[in-house]
Amino acid sequence: MAHTFKFRFRGPAGGLAVDLRAEAVPADGGTPAHGMRIHRNVRLGLPASGLYWKDAAWLAFGVSLHAPALAGLRPDGVFIRVISLDHPLSDYRSEAAALAMDGWIRERFALEVPVASVAYDTARDRYVFDWGTTFRPFSDDPRPEVPPPFRDHQELDVTVTGVASVGSRVDVDGGGTGFVDQVKHPSWWDEDTAPPRPGDRLHVVVLDAGRDEPRFSALPGDIDIARRLRALRDGA
Prior knowledge:
- By secondary structure, this protein is α+β, with helices and mostly antiparallel strands.
- The chain has four helices and twelve strands, in the order ββββαβαβββββαββα.
């Protein structure tokens, strides 16, 4: 039975919208016409009328994010046949097709954990897509060449590497560096809290990702505000 998933993400002056209608049927007899093999016996079929090549590529990538799980759920194979892919009035980004497929698969196969997501980076005025552990889609070496960009209100775990009178430089777990101004250390406000030292571990939130050296805060109040802002954004 065909199922429709409507992906929606609201941006500051528009947003992303994709309506994906597809069905899942047994994968009998190899790859059909207008189809492709994604992983083992997990296959994707495209409409006979065709799709824009970028939409088709990102749909295939969206299936690949869940392909190992689908292969485990359907050891005899599964064929996901796309019936239609529409972009209602919205900002067009071909990557949104992968997000729609991610949502469609999670609903159709009752998979709880999303693999892909999108946020809007106001400092850079652009959409930022997160593909989980895949940093370079379509590459045979999907590891990041450079640390992934930070986003405002993102929470990070860091290690202090240097301390000066104006603040501390830190290394971010997973790659990247940033700066915590002295007034954004709890010790600035609480005399019972020890000043930062090299090697200290901190949990921080990104205040300004747009600077050459991103600015972080270790203040619980700033972290709480960031969590509330993210909750408002995700609930929009």
